Structure formats: C-alpha cells, structure tokens
Amino acid sequence: MRNLKTEVDALGEVVSKKNSFSAKGLDALGKQIVFSVLRQFFELQAITQELLVKQLNRKHKDLELLIMCGLYAIDNLNQPAHTSVNGAVETSKALKKPWASGLINATLRRYLRERDKIRSRALTTTAAISNHPDWFTRRIQQDWPQEYDQIVSANNTPAPMHLRINQQKVSRNDYIKKLTEVGLQAVKSEHSRYCLTLTDPVSVEKLPGFNLGLVSVQDEAAQLAAILLDPAAGDHVLDACSAPGGKSCHLFEIEPEITLHSIDVDKDRLARVQENFTRLGIRGDIIHQDLLQIKDDQISSFDKILLDAPCSATGVIRRHPDIKLLRRSSDIDKLGSTQRQLLENCWSMLKSQGDLVYATCSILPQENEDLVAEFVQRHADAQPIEVNLTIGKSQAIGHQLLPAIGAHDGFYFAHLRKTSAGKAL
Predict the structure, then answer these.
(1) Is residue 150 part of a domain?
(2) Are 349 and 294 in contact (CB under 8 A)?
(3) End of a domain among 217, 241, 261?
(4) Which of 9, 214, 248, 381 lies in the 20 to 30 Å Cα band around 133?
(5) Among residues 241, 311, 346, 361, which one is catalytic?
C-alpha cells in the first residue's frame, strides 16, 4: 500500500505554488503518478468536483489533489482497487488531516460503485474532455482548426524517447548494434540523420556510452535547429538562450571546428550546459548574459546565430504537462515582446551575409510566423530562406511542426539571411 504524500506535495508545488514540476524526491512510480495526474488534470478535477457533495476549502487543496491521485491509481495502477483507496486514506493522515480519512474513503468508494455514471456527468466541458485549459483550446481551434484533434491527442499521449547520436564518436548503425547488445531496440528517424527513436524509453544510465558522450536525449524536432543552421568550419557561432545546452552540443557534433558562444540569462541552467559540455568533451565559451542588453563588441560579430527563443512551450506539452496549469493566455503577449527584442538584438549581432535560425517550441503563430513576418517587413536586409523539411507545414515564412503521436514535438523554424548592412524600416 503506497503513501501518496510525496506525490501530493509535488502536485501542490505546481497547482498551488505555480512552480514548474520537479521530480526531486520521487521514485519512478511517483513520477508516473504525478506526471499522469498533470496530464489528465482537468478530467480528474472534474470527476473530483462531481464526487464531492461539498467543495473543499482552498486551504484543503491537498485533499483534492489526493483524491485525484487516488482516482488515477484506481484506473491505472496494476493493483487491487481497494489497495489504491486504502493508500489514499492513509495519506490523509500523513498530510496531518486524519479527520479527512472518512471523506477520502467514501469519495473513492463511491467512484468505484458509480464510475460510469460519475464520468458521464463530469466529462461535459471542453476542458474536461480535452484535458487542456479553455484559453488553449480556443487558440488551437482558431489557429489550427483542422489539426485540433491531432494536437490535443498528441499532447495527451506520452512522448517517445529520441536519441541524438554523436557522429564524431559513433555512427547510427554502430550505435544500434550497441543498443541491441544490451537488449534495447531503436529505429532510425527519417528527418534527422542523427536521430534514433527507442522502442521503449529507459533511464539514461542504461544507454551504452552515455557517460562517454556517444549519445544524448533530444527530441527529433529540436535536433533540426542545429541542422538548419548548418555550421561550417571556422564559423563564429552564437547559441542564444542556450541552456540546457542540447543545441550547443549538437552544433559542435556537426562541426567541431567552430568558435561557439553559448549564452543564457539563467545562471543556474548554465550549469547544465557545462555538464553537457563536460560529458561530451566539448569546448566552448559559456556566458551568463541577458541578451536583451548586448555589448558594443558583440555587434556584427557572428557568422551564424541560433535563437531558440523563450516561448509558451505549447509544442512540448506532452513532455511538460505542467505547462497546461502554469501558462496563461496573457503570457503570450509578454513573451512576444521578449521574442521581438531578442530577435532585434541577435540580428544586430549577425554579420552581413550571416544566417540566423529563429526557433521556438511553440505552435502559436503569434510567436512564430506572424512575429517573424513582422520582423522581415521592418528589415530590408532580412531575406527569408526556405526551410526544406519533409515533415510539418511550410508557412509563408518558416516551417511549423505540430506535435505528433509517436514522433516529434511541436516546433517552429525560420531561417533568415542578412543580405546587406541595411537598417530597419
């Protein structure tokens, strides 16, 4: 019988304190429970509210989250239903609310008796049916009406585990052999020549040569950013907003003879960049800087720039379901303002005839095609270069990938070339 206090505490950090999900202190099953409750949050919340005769006071949000964990355990864990109920009841005591044990017991046992009837009454709103907040479904229905069902289904389905092979150290074919030797299976990606998709996800410790830098974990779509930038030997390259360093590492793996500056505003996350550099044996300048404020000596100093801009992350909800609870519609305008300024500043740092790849893990045109089109209209020296991908949707400017079950995340890419020393219009 499992005590669920650690899981309830982790959910409370997201739901009540509005912090990003942290798996710290959770074992594998705990991560599964919390991750799944976040993924099914709006459904489980609606069922909980239908079950409760009297809604709980806000100070007892932990009890509501406990009921939601209990509901998930009843429907999904490979154990008798009464074990899930008893675990939730015992957790109420661990939460120092023993008075609620009867409520938890009665609520979950009522669900066992009336499951179909309760679900039918509860799952009537768009939020409960889609497991997404209303602001998000409204935007997707407006921006991607034909793809709405695909996006919602993909977001509610666990993502596959994609690997990026370090071809400076091993070929894809040879790494497949190494996986086979330890009983793991993978297939080659059609879209990134560095990508393998594991048949079944595993912890990185089980990946052959992980600590030796043979392989990294990175989504197939994210791998396309460095490929599109196409660094060449001798290039002076900027990876703006670089943490945690996956794209910086990929740039070096593609072409080791570049000079790379990896810049990020988050000092703590830059430590992850250093960890990745160390594991992969990569050298590069890791710089703590807010690129909303650039230095004079950075003007026109880079041959190529990768700007993976901070965004709504609406393309990676399946990997980070806490986004559905943390993000607000009002955030999009604020993010857009930051994205515009970063693009302006990075453009000023780019040499004439240089290339810039603008990328986001968003599926919202306001952060992507619309923003880049507006930028191109203002800059006579900004020439859009066609993004040649065989997946996703070619836009008037750039290319949009939508999350796909069993495949890539949602990403947007635009490739711009600085044709002259022209000034903004």
Answers:
(1) no
(2) yes
(3) 217
(4) 9
(5) 361
Last residue within a domain, chosen from 199, 217, 235? 217
Q: How far apart are CA 197 and CA 202, in angstroms?
A: 11
Long-range own/partner contacts, residues 391-397 (CB < 8 A, 24 or more apart): 391/190, 391/191, 395/365, 395/368, 395/369, 396/369, 397/369, 397/372, 397/373
Residue 300 lies in a domain: yes
- Contacts for 58 with CB less than 8 Å, ≥ 6 apart: none
pLDDT digits (tens, 9 = 90+) for 340-371: 999 999 999 999 999 999 999 999 999 999 99
The count of structural domains within the chain is: 3
Same domain, 167 and 257: no
Task: Say if residues 84 and 73 touch (Cβ distance below 8 Å).
Answer: yes
What are 186-233's pLDDT values in tens digits?
A: 999 989 999 999 999 999 999 999 999 999 999 999 999 999 999 999
**What is the domain range of residue 25?**
5-131
User: Of 258, 229, 255, which is closest to residue 346 (Cα–Cα)?
Assistant: 229
């864990």: which residue's tokens? 77
How far apart, in Å, are the Cα atoms of 150 and each of 140, 147, 154, 393?
A: 11, 5, 6, 14
Residue 307 phi/psi, 5° resolution?
A: -110, 95
224 in a domain, yes or no?
A: yes
For the whole model, what pTM was predicted? 0.92
Is residue 12 domain-shared with residue 117, that is, in the same domain?
yes
- Quick one: 13 and 81 in the same domain? yes
User: How much helix, strand and coil, in percent to the nearest 5, is found in the chain?
Assistant: 50, 15, 35
Decide: helix, strand or coil at residue 279: helix
Q: 311 an active-site residue?
A: no
* Edge-to-edge order in the sheet of strand 186-188: 186-188, 195-198, 162-165, 215-217
In a domain, 18, yes or no: yes
- Specify whether the CB–CB gap between 316 and 410 falls below 8 A: yes
Same domain as 359, residue 278: yes
